[in-house]
Specification:
It is a single chain. The protein is an alpha/beta fold and 265 residues long. Helix content is 42%, strand content 22%. The protein contains eleven helices and eleven strands. A six-stranded mixed β-sheet has the order 2-1-3-10-4-11. A five-stranded mixed β-sheet has the order 7-6-8-5-9. Helix 2 (42-56) links the parallel strand 1 and strand 2. Helix 1 packs across helix 2 (42-56) and helix 1 runs antiparallel to helix 10. It starts with a helix and ends with a strand.
């Protein structure tokens, strides 16, 4: 009941905010806005988009993919193929690279959220100790199998954190790099004993238990940002959508998903 009341309050505030955006954007409506978003922002995005569609009468068409990597559905590969898009939402570093490549409009970047990396195990399994660096190191060495994302969090783990802990060579043979599905789904099936991914990507997955975030000393906070695609057909509507997603009224849904909002004031 409390959750329903909260969402009702959020919807009312969002409706007022979106209405003000439409005035700012010139009142255009009934357009089809194409969005590509990475997994970390997806849970919050799915909560927020229906209110934007209802209030503006615009239709949002969404494609999902990783911020980086060579998977066919990753956002960089989609853009290389020339898939139509108005708004891209992905890790800030990846968005900046797309801007340098001319695929995102310079100056259109808006930072939306900060995202941290978390740990999960299969539902009902004992939760390992990851509270300190030594405990995390022991947990990784003792785990039978380890799964991590092929996107931003996994790149950090494999290239920075594991080497920093001095265990990269020892655990390499039992690590699984997951490119085409959530890490949590792999853990839920029992195909990996322990999984690492952005917290917001772990929390919605059924069949797993969230253990907690990485220790502060090795935590990697990633900023996820939105930008307007260079080939956007509806740049004004795209700008209005981004402004809504970055607004304080979007913050409750963002926080609920396990992310920290970077709300504009």
């Amino acid at each position: 009941m409390e959750q329903m009341k909260t969402m009702s309050r959020v919807s009312k505030m969002a409706a007022l905010f979106v209405a003000s955006i439409l005035l700012f954007a010139g009142g255009a409506g009934a357009e089809e806005i194409r969005v590509m978003t990475s997994g970390a922002f997806t849970a919050a995005y799915l909560q927020l988009i229906p209110e934007f569609e209802r209030t503006t009468q615009n239709k949002i068409v969404t494609a999902y993919g990783a911020s980086m990597g060579n998977a066919p559905d990753s956002i960089p590969r989609r853009l290389e193929r020339g898939e139509p898009v108005d708004v891209v939402i992905l890790a800030a570093d990846a968005l900046e690279e797309l801007t340098r490549q001319g695929k995102v409009v310079p100056g259109s970047r808006v930072d939306l959220v900060r995202s941290s990396i978390g740990v999960a195990v299969r539902a009902g399994a004992p939760k390992p100790d990851i509270g300190t660096l030594d405990a995390l190191k022991r947990t990784l060495l003792q785990a039978k199998s380890i799964a991590y994302s092929a996107s931003a969090s996994g790149v950090y783990l494999s290239q920075e954190m594991f080497p920093r802990l001095g265990i990269a060579d020892q655990i390499r043979g039992k690590c699984k790099r997951i490119a085409n599905e959530p890490v949590g789904a792999v853990v839920a099936r029992g195909d990996a004993e322990i999984g690492f991914q952005q917290i917001s990507e772990l929390l919605p997955v059924p069949g797993i238990d969230y253990v907690g975030p990485l220790p502060r000393e090795v935590q990697k906070v990633t900023v996820f940002s939105a930008g307007i695609a260079s080939g956007a057909k509806h740049p004004d509507a795209a700008r209005a959508l981004i402004k809504f997603l970055a607004s304080p009224d979007a913050a409750p849904a963002i926080q609920k998903s396990g992310l920290e909002p970077i709300a504009s004031r």
